[in-house]
Amino acid sequence: MEDFIVDNFRIFAPVRIGAVSGYAQIDTGANPSFVRRSFSTDFQRVGTGEIRGALRMTAVEQCRLGIVSFLGYDFSDVVVNIQSDDAGDFQGLPFQVVMTIGVDILYQKPLYLNFVEGQIGFLEVVPSEWEVRGQVVDLHFKSGLAFFKTSLGSYKLNALFDTGAGFSVLNAKCLDMLRADLIEQEPEETLDPTGAKALIPVYKYPSLEINGRSIGEIRFLVMDLADVEKAIGMEVDIVFGFDTMASYNWVVGKSQKRLLMIR
Description:
Layout: E1 2-3, E2 5-7, E3 10-17, E4 20-26, E5 34-36, E6 44-52, E7 57-70, E8 73-83, E9 97-101, H1 103-106, E10 111-114, E11 119-122, H2 128-133, E12 135-138, E13 140-142, E14 145-152, E15 155-161, E16 168-171, H3 175-178, E17 183-191, E18 197-205, E19 208-210, E20 213-214, E21 218-223, H4 226-232, E22 238-240, H5 242-245, E23 249-253, E24 258-262
Parallel strand pairs: 4-9, 5-8, 15-22, 16-21
Antiparallel strand pairs: 1-11, 2-3, 3-4, 3-7, 5-9, 6-7, 7-8, 10-11, 10-23, 12-24, 13-14, 14-15, 14-19, 16-22, 17-18, 18-21, 19-20, 23-24
């Protein structure tokens, strides 16, 4: 296990790219991973890709990283998008951010996020007692991303498990059916991985449920996710972000197609 750092609702963990050591943002909403442009100059360009955020999408170059060392494992020949140094809002942090690690690496093994102790790691075996005291949630995957079913009142919604989203997001198309129970909040300025910023309306809802268990009040930004849905090929009703998931510990198992929620 590695200790992670939380800064402004974002998770960072140690990483090494070849001989360069630093930190990576942990983003289960990203596929593939990104490297910051200033750390990409020594690597072979292999084509173009796309970085998509809730506010916009942008075409970028891709490169091939030799060895990425992360959480005790080495990952070879990783093809990543090249992210502008101005995107991500990493300037001024007291540690060096070299990349954003997405699901192409994070989901190669069962991923454990321990928010109680501030640790992250890959698991070879999930302890059986965790399954006894936790909630097992079915996952389905699209474009490498993990989705699960959740409920707001009587409405069943499709949620994306996204550690890269500092705040949870409700798709604007769902707003009307929930409006009677929503409480409007002060708007928030938000930044997506492309570097785009906007002032976004915010609401809260009394209770979000997963597998019939209430995890309490949820606060979310309201944004039009139509372009995100089109790019992924999947309905995205809710982006389940850091602020909502941080009260629990989680195991994401891609091969088992399940999410374990532990408190």
